[in-house]
Amino acid sequence: MFLTKLDVLKVRNLESVGISCHPKANIIYGANGSGKTSLLEAIFLLGRGRSFKHRDLRLVVNKQSDQLVVSAKVFRPASETTHQLGVMRTAKGDFEARCDGKSLQSAAELALELPIQLVDAHSFSLLEGGPLQRRQFLDWGVFHVEHGYSDLWRRFQKVLKQRNQLLRHGRIDEDSLRIWTAELIPLNEQITEYRKQYLSQLEQHIVPVVERFGGLGVVSLEYSQGWSEGAKIAEIFDGDRERDLATGTTSHGAHRADIRVFVDGMAAADRLSRGQSKLLVYALKLAQASQYQAATGQSCVFLLDDLPAELDADNRNDVVSYLDSLGCQYFVTGVDKQDFNAALEGMDGQLFHVEQGVVSNG
Ligand SMILES: Nc1ncnc2c1ncn2[C@@H]1O[C@H](COP(=O)(O)OP(=O)(O)OP(=O)(O)O)[C@@H](O)[C@H]1O
Ligand SMILES: [Mg+2]
Q1: Best of 38, 39, 40 to mutate for ligand 1, by most ligand atoms within 8 A of CB?
Q2: Residue 237: exposed, middle, or buried by beta-carbon count in 10 A (0-12, 13-18, 19+)?
Q3: What's the 332 CA to ligand 2 centre distance in angstroms?
Q4: FRET partner for 66 with CA separation of 20 to 30 A, picked from 34, 92, 181, 185?
Q5: Are 236 and 221 contacting, i.e. CB atoms less than 8 angstroms apart?
Q6: Domain 1-115+298-362 belongs to what architecture?
Q7: Is the pLDDT of residue 347 over 80?
Q8: How far does the centroid of ligand 1 lie from the alpha carbon of residue 168, in Å?
Q9: In whole angstroms, what separates CA 320 from the centre of its chain?
């Protein structure tokens, strides 16, 4: 799917922006502080209901205003339908999302209307950061292809929280602990099953991307499920009993899962240069988009913040041409127009110039 029209009101330094979007390449250039990342923030907000820069959405509302609004027309080629999507956030904290005039109840519903992939300077932590980023990456994929997954995940979080509260309680209520533990066991198993299935499909989509990029090596992913492979989670909970009571937390389970990324059999972070690691992050996200497309028949929208600062010209072209071959719409930012010259040659796309919060066709 892709945006055909985007309207942004009061997002950071963007007072009022209205643009017609190109179905493929949207190249946004402008000086530091002009508002490029803010434009991507607006699109991200529309698809995810949150900011990629700030935990607190109030910081995203223009500081002279008390509410922001982002709306867009989203075209779905599979059904040849256009949908009107909108989000509103007041400085007081109210948030509202709508699709075709109907209220959406959760960020999960919004995400299904507009699947977004973002790559910015922080995306690098997918390889170098803690397991949370990798679990989020994995869960994005499972969520978008398995529609029951978000309910399953919410239920898991709720039961885990209840069990942890009980463990911290001091005098333990054995019956309640037995009940919450018994409920947590199948949830762990189902989440693990979904994630393993997804990862094995994803690996097949990584191969062609990495081949196209050349020189990265053989990439493989290994799922670490959050407890010993081959052991039953019920037995793990039995064995962890004293430790869980002492620490007041559930030591093992799907909430402790991770993905190990290998290149030619070595940990990716040890094997690759910094630039190559960045390229691998792009490859993983592109593979995810390709898997999403194979599973749903829809394409996702890519936001690539400051691409020229992240990759050299050859690698940039590889990323952009892969996006073109997938048919994904993308919004890419950079300071200098000439950094996009090679990509612009013979390219089907629209150039935008951002100057002090004003966006014009460039
Ligand atoms: N809540 C806000 N209200 C008004 N302006 C804001 C707010 N938050 C940030 N800004 C300003 O918005 C401007 C644009 O920021 P943005 O990150 O979009 O710039 P950019 O074009 O991506 O720059 P760079 O090339 O440095 O990444 C900055 O000057 C920033 O200080
Ligand atoms: Mg920026």
Answers
A1: 38
A2: buried
A3: 11
A4: 34
A5: no
A6: 3-Layer(aba) Sandwich (3.40)
A7: no
A8: 43
A9: 18
Give me the residue spans of the domains in the chain.
Answer: 1-115+298-362
Entry field: residues in the chain: 362
How crowded is residue 140: how many other Cβ atoms within 10 Å of its Cβ? 20
Ligand nearest to the Cα of 15, by number:
1
Confidence category of residue 188, pLDDT binned at 50, 70, 90: very high
Assigned token pair, 332: 């890419």
Give the pLDDT confidence of 304-317 residue by residue, as tens digits. 999 999 899 999 99
Region label for 35, one of left (φ > 0), alpha (ψ between -120 and 50) or beta (otherwise): left
What is the residue with the minimal CA distance to atom 19 of ligand 1? Answer: 33
Q: What is the pLDDT of residue 173?
A: 86
- Round to whole Å and give the CA distance between 132 and 259: 10
According to the model, what pLDDT value does residue 345 have? 74
- Which helix H or strand E contains 74, and what residues bound it? strand 67-76
User: Residue 94 is encoded by which pair of tokens?
Assistant: 């109210």
For ligand 1, which residues put their CB under 6 angstroms from it? 12-13, 30, 32-38, 59, 61-63, 306, 335
User: Which residues, 6+ apart, have CB-to-CB distance to 175 below 8 Å?
Assistant: none
Ligand approaching nearest to the C-alpha of 29: 1
Strands 14-20 and 2-11: antiparallel
* pLDDT tens readout for residues 137-164: 999 999 999 989 999 999 999 999 999 9
Tokens of 199: 């990862």
Between vectors from CA 347 to CA 341 and to CA 349, what angle results, nearest 5°? 100
Q: From CA 350, how far away is CA 362, in angstroms rounded?
A: 8
What's the rounded Cα separation, in Å, for the pair 241 and 250? 9
CB 298, CB 76: distance < 8 Å: yes
Chain-centroid distance of CA 84 in Å reads 22
3 CA from centroid of ligand 2 (Å): 21
